[in-house]
């Protein structure tokens, strides 16, 4: 005997819908499988068993992926009274734990068999099916039986949290005759609105009702009163002229004479919970059209207060719209800013993961039913293929769609679909339009709020991106930053193509995927696809080549897999190919990288299988591509400039130093900055004639091309004049005249020039001229340090110079140190190394070789200050080898 108050309708085991997915043998697939099952069951309206199904799926998928080490296949089957989930792996390696006589499940501490233990504890039925190549573990969860008339229940709240009421809750009961005039008005109606029965009886309800009419639609209070049942919000004008928001429930009845009339129950809108029926009732009895309670199960109010986020509001809207019309699926689309396309934002009963953010045109065809701006009812989609593109290949046969409008402007479209033909009529369209009119403003308000948040987030993203791109002038680092900023924020994967010049083809320079294990496969797939055409036109354009290549690769791989036979394991290469094909199977767009009116590359963004880009994301990606293109071109120009500067710098320095008999020579040169400036300090050592060598170390004022010109002039003039037989003073006087001849391009020059003659007794004779340069220092064998020359005027300032040379004899063990002012003027705050500091450093180099002396001086200069050097440095050390130091 059935329990009292329990629905005893026959529970069918016929499968009404199915959803399937496969998951790669990687750890993150467990979470993806949980999300798949949760979304599927919630879309079917089976929220009562979602938690148990997700727990069981998680355990079974973990067993397949982690323990068996194979891909997992998940199949969800929908029935009227239950849901069945099957999880299969391809090559099981573990035995099934037995239960029964002589067998027991593993202990709770053991991982083996835990999934089956959970099935035994949570599922209504479960089992394991084996085949030579596969194993299926399935479980079934029965839907809970609800008492007839049960709608929903709220939590038990403490008394302090209950809403306060100034007086007892009043329910206005009014009755309207077939002509729309009031025929009954109770005392609570008088208390709420202020009118007595004598004042309003006989007047049309439309005179008092403030109906939330939407421009462009013909719905109103008169139409609502003609429905067999209606529930929703509107307003009643009180005696003071103010509109009192009310929540109403209309029921159409017949009086004792058989005349139709409508009974209306009205409460204040903030007390709507008294009348509101927010959830779907039981499936109607085909014989009576009711659910056993006398209520029309099609009518469910969906315009309750919106959640905090737009996605939550839209998802709840489609679920309630489906319940209101007892449909199998529902969808809601929002219009783009130009109102030429509609974007899928929420679905239920449909593969939402594939359809989300897909776009369809507002005007899909000619006539009333081809435009989303008007309500439409399609009795059989099979007879009008493509009438509703969103429902293609979904099994839906009939559909009703209505527009969402705010102030006459199209803001979206709401639709409910059924798997059987002829389910909906104009009456259902009217009901759905009433609901759409009530929620349109709330949806548009939430959409604008989301758009504002997206714009703020986009501005923050672009500011951060600009800072990162401006922080480097390295080409490879710029490419990496471009990709890392787009993945996964804007896309699932990214590829950057670069173009060296107008005659070159695009080259695949960088590839990134949010799953690092798929980068190599993605790169291999893209390398087989011809690159996109470089088009100067701005904006994103769809690129179908990667998707086609992915489909072909997947098809070829599937055929190879079938040809292996059931007893042969599938290679990891096949799994990788299938995973890569799934990753590239969605929408792919290309944005040109345009800098200085030239296409220097393309930024390619991709989504996984059947996924689409939102318009806001594409606009953000376009902004990013403009910034990235300029940064990439700046990096190219900087790299070219550095290469040119380094080549010019190398040309200003001697390629190699000659071997000087009996004298150790060491030179250290350090250019300041990142190699982007030329000129400045220079040095040289060259043979003049047999047994004689010239040496020089100098510093041209400033940097850049003009300084480089003087540097090149000085180095080559010194060699030429010295080899012509001129002495030191004559060489510098002629060089001074040549610098002055440069006119406005001339720069003054400090120069230490000398000639060196190694002596047969082991010493060395030097003749030096110090023209405005830091004085050379001589380190004696006993550790004393003294200047080796006197200061004289620098070059490039005065026409007439009277220079003289000084002789210096280096004894065995002596060192001559020559430096540029980058060494002596090394600063740390107000401190400067200076000549005294350099002499102190040199004094500690007694007994060291020329190379060790130069290295110690450089190390002392670098340690003197924490900041990088701001001036070039040249160090020339010459030492005459001798006996051990004293």
From TrEMBL:
Transmembrane intervals: none
Q: Which Pfam families match?
A: GAF_2 (PF13185), GAF_3 (PF13492), HATPase_c_2 (PF13581), PAS (PF00989), SpoIIE (PF07228)
CDD domains in UniProt? HATPase_RsbW-like, PAS
GO BP: regulation of DNA-templated transcription
Note the superkingdom of the native organism: Bacteria
In this protein, which residues make up the domain named PAS?
A: 167-203
Q: Does the keyword Hydrolase apply?
A: yes
PROSITE patterns xrefs: PAS (PS50112)
Output the InterPro entries linked to this UniProt entry: Bact_Sigma-Reg, GAF, GAF-like_dom_sf, HATPase_C_sf, HATPase_dom, PAS, PAS-like_dom_sf, PAS_fold
Q: Does the keyword Hydrolase apply?
A: yes
Molecular-function GO term, any one: phosphatase activity
Keywords assigned by UniProt, alphabetized: Hydrolase
Q: Which NCBIfam families match?
A: sensory_box
Instruction: From the Swiss-Prot or TrEMBL record, give the protein name.
Output: Regulatory protein
Read off the lineage from the record. Answer: Bacteria, Bacillati, Actinomycetota, Actinomycetes, Kitasatosporales
């Amino acid at each position: 005997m059935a329990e009292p108050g329990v629905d005893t309708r026959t529970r069918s085991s016929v499968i009404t819908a199915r959803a399937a997915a496969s998951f790669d043998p990687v750890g993150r697939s467990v979470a993806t499988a949980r999300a798949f099952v949760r979304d599927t069951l919630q879309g079917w309206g089976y929220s009562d068993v979602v938690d148990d199904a997700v727990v069981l799926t998680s355990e079974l998928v973990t067993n397949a992926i982690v323990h068996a080490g194979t891909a997992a296949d998940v199949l969800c089957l929908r029935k009227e009274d239950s849901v069945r989930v099957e999880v299969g792996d391809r090559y099981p390696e573990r035995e099934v734990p037995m239960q029964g006589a002589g067998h027991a499940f593993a202990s709770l501490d053991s991982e083996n068999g835990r999934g089956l233990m959970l099935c035994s504890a949570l599922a209504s039925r479960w089992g394991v099916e084996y085949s030579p190549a596969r194993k299926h573990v399935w479980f079934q969860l029965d839907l809970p039986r609800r008492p007839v008339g049960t709608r929903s229940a709220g939590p038990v709240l403490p008394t302090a949290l209950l809403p306060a009421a100034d007086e007892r809750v009043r329910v206005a009961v009014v009755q309207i005759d077939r002509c729309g005039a009031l025929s009954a008005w109770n005392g609570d109606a008088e208390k709420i609105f202020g009118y007595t029965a004598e004042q309003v009886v006989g007047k049309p309800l439309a005179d008092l009702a403030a109906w939330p009419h939407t421009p462009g639609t013909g719905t109103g209070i008169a139409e609502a009163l003609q429905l067999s049942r209606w529930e929703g919000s509107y307003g009643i004008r009180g005696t003071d002229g103010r509109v009192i928001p009310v929540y109403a429930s209309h029921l159409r009845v017949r009086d004792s004479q058989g005349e139709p009339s409508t009974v209306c129950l009205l409460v204040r809108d903030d007390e709507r919970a008294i009348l509101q029926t927010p959830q779907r009732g039981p499936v109607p009895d085909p014989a009576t059209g009711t659910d056993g309670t006398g209520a029309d199960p099609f009518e469910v109010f969906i315009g309750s207060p919106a959640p905090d986020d737009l996605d939550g509001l839209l998802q709840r809207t489609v679920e309630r719209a489906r319940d209101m019309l007892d449909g199998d699926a529902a969808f809601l689309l929002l219009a783009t800013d130009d109102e030429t396309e509609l974007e899928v934002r929420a679905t239920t009963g449909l593969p939402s993961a594939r359809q989300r953010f897909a776009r369809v045109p507002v005007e899909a065809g000619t006539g009333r039913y081809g435009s989303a701006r008007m309500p439409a009812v399609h009795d059989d989609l099979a007879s009008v293929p493509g009438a509703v593109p969103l429902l293609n290949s979904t099994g839906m046969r009939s559909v009703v769609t209505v527009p969402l409008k705010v102030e006459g402007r199209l803001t979206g479209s709401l639709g409910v679909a059924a798997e059987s033909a002829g389910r909906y009529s104009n009456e259902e369209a009217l009901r759905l339009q009433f609901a759409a009119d009530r929620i349109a403003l709330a949806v548009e308000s939430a959409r604008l709020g989301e758009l504002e948040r997206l714009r703020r987030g986009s501005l923050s993203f672009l500011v951060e991106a600009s800072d990162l791109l401006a922080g480097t002038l390295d080409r490879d680092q710029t490419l990496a930053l471009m990709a890392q900023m787009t993945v996964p924020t804007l896309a699932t994967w990214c590829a950057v193509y670069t173009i060296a010049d107008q005659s070159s083809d695009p080259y695949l320079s960088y590839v990134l995927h949010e799953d690092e294990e798929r980068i190599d496969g993605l790169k291999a797939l893209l390398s087989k696809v011809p690159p996109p055409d470089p088009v100067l036109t701005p904006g994103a354009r769809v690129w179908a080549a990667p998707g086609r290549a992915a489909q072909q690769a997947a098809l070829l791989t599937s055929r190879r897999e079938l040809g292996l036979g059931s007893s042969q394991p599938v290679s990891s290469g096949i799994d990788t190919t299938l995973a890569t094909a799934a990753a590239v199977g969605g929408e792919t767009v290309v944005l040109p990288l345009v800098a200085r009116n030239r296409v220097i590359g393309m930024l390619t963004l991709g989504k996984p299988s059947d996924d689409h880009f939102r318009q806001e994301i594409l606009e953000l990606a376009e902004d990013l591509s403009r910034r990235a293109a300029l940064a990439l071109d700046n990096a190219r120009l900087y790299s070219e400039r550095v290469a040119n500067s380094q080549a010019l710098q190398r040309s200003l320095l001697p390629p190699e130093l000659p071997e000087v008999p009996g004298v150790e020579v060491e030179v250290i040169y350090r250019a300041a900055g990142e190699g982007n400036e030329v000129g400045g300090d220079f040095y040289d050592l060259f043979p003049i004639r047999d047994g004689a060598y010239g040496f020089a170390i100098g510093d041209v004022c400033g940097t850049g091309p003009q300084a480089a010109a003087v540097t090149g002039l000085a180095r080559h003039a010194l060699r030429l004049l010295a080899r012509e037989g001129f002495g030191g003073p004559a060489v510098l006087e002629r060089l001074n005249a040549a610098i002055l001849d440069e006119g406005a391009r001339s720069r003054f020059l400090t120069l230490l020039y000398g000639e060196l003659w190694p002596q047969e007794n082991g010493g060395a004779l030097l003749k030096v001229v110090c023209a405005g340069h830091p004085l050379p220092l001589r380190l004696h064998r006993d550790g004393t340090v003294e200047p080796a020359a006197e200061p004289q005027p620098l070059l490039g300032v005065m026409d007439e110079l009277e220079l003289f040379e000084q002789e210096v004899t280096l004894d065995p063990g002596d060192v001559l140190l020559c430096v540029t002012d980058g060494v002596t003027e090394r600063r740390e705050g107000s401190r400067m190394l200076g000549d005294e500091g350099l002499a102190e450093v040199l004094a500690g180099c007694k007994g060291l070789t020329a190379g060790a002396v130069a290295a110690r001086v450089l190390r002392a200069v670098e340690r003197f200050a924490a900041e990088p050097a701001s001036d070039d440095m040249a160090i020339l050390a010459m030492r005459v080898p001798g006996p051990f130091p004293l």
